[in-house]
Amino acid sequence: MEVFLAEYGLSTEEGLALMSLAEALLRVPDAETSDALIEDKIAPADWKRHKGRSKSSLVNMSTRGLMLTGGVLGRRDPA
């Protein structure tokens, strides 16, 4: 966890997005709102700038997952 926090600290846009997402998901009333919140926080962030920067393979794989998720959400058509 410490290595993940070192890569995604609150001094980064992506770290702030993850922190606000974690806090907000505790309070959302339904799945639709959760989905919208996740899309709002994950899609616009620049996850690529974190790619391969950590010594931890777990953090680097998490970064790839966030890149993939952001890419998929960024290509969705607005409903």
What does this structure look like?
- The structure is a single chain.
- This protein is mostly helical and 79 residues long.
- Helices cover 63% and strands 0% of the residues.
- The chain contains 4 helices and no strands.
- Helix 2 runs antiparallel to helix 3.
- The mean pLDDT is 92.
Descriptive tags:
mainly alpha, 79 residues
Portion in beta strands: under 5%
Helix content: 55-70%
Give a quick account of the main beta sheet: strands, pairing sense, barrel closure. none
State the total count of DSSP E strands: 0
Q: Figure out the total of helices.
A: 4
Uncertain runs: none
The average pLDDT score comes to 92
Give me the Rg, rounded. Answer: 13 Å
Helix/strand order: HHHH
N- to C-terminal distance: 36 Å
Based on secondary structure, the structural category is mainly alpha
What's the overall geometry?
globular
Brief description of this entry?
The chain is mostly helical. Helices cover 63% and strands 0% of the residues.
List the helices and strands and how they pair.
Blueprint: H1 2-7, H2 13-25, H3 31-42, H4 57-75
